[in-house]
Amino acid sequence: MTPPVSKPRPGPMRLPDALQYRLPLAAKVSILHRASGLLMVMLLPFAIWLLDTSLSSEVSFERFSAAFTAGIGFVPAVLVKLVVLALIWSLLHHLFAGVRHVWMDVTHSVSKAQGHASAVVTMAGSVLLTALLGARLFGLY
After folding, report:
1. Are 103 and 129 in contact (CB under 8 A)?
2. From residue 138, how far is each of 40, 51, 69, 133 by CA, in Å?
């Protein structure tokens, strides 16, 4: 009897090797779900400041409104709007992806086709609503 031939173990994976993989859309949605959660946590102090400034008094609401037209200190208004747009995207994407995960858990839908279809709905919904709200934020309608 001949001894089994062992294959050599692969070496450590390097970044160029990892970039050759083509992830399915469901995996990209999952990664973006984590990224949007991290972005929401990082922007939480800004969101709390926006809420506090908009609700404290009429004077503070004027300061809140001015942040979107004149900026905040040395930060231009366009950058404030971009940060708010990033917050809007992170909230919407995280919401859509969270509902997607709950739906998969409730219906026990774990097929490849269902995962791809729900990933398409998640990406389309979050990007479409972000674009609509972003157009409103930047004064296009």
Report:
1. no
2. 21, 19, 10, 9
pLDDT tens string 11-67: 777 777 767 788 899 999 999 999 999 999 999 999 999 999 999 999 999 989 999
Q: How far apart are alpha carbons 55 and 61 in whole angstroms?
A: 7
- Here the contacts of 119-124 (C-beta below 8 Å, separation 24 or greater) are 119/24, 119/25, 119/26, 119/28, 119/29, 120/25, 121/96, 122/29, 122/93, 122/96, 122/97, 123/25, 123/29
Locate 106 and state its tokens: 């409730």
Q: 3-class SS at 72?
A: strand
Structure tokens at 16: 């160029």
**Nearest Cα to Cα of residue 65 among 56, 110, 86:** 56
- Closest to 24 measured CA to CA, from 91, 117, 93: 117
> Could you tell me the two tokens for 65?
């409104």
